[in-house]
Request: fold
Amino acid sequence: MRHWVKQLFYCIRPGFYLMLAVMVLTVPFCWILAWILASAIHELGHYAVIKLCGKNICKIRVDWNGATMETEDLGHVQWLCALAGPVAGFLLLPFYRWIPRLAVCAFVQSCMNLLPIYPSDGGRILSGILGFWLPAQIVERITEELSDEEKNIIKFLWINHQTTLEVILWQ
Reply:
């Protein structure tokens, strides 16, 4: 019998606790719980596809900006493994009627993760797909350029998104 988890190490970094503390002070508990569950489902999507591709996960790290899985080299299936997390989140949308907070949190997380900024899921998907047609040096340069240019825009949008979400939640 094959074991899915042979030896898995995880690390929850102090930044996660800081972010959680800020959320506890600013966001209702039901939304925090939905966000944590949506994040877990997102990561389970990655985990399932990585295991289905026959690869191993060495370490899971949770920090203020999300979870990171350290894996063996994923090669040409990296884009597929990166796509699995957002797809898992989008699969919760049909259940909006019964679990609206979870579906909304999963949808927002999936959309944010699909932005083509490396090392997010969108950046990994983009670099993986471009890697089929372009040399590695060009793909690396494209992902670096997108990351540098869009990071400032995304930070601005994320701050405005958080403010808007807090206003909606407190009404």
Q: What stands out?
A: The two ends are 52 Å apart (CA to CA). The CA atoms of residues 66 and 168 lie 23 Å apart. Confidence is low (pLDDT under 50) at residues 1-5, 162-168.
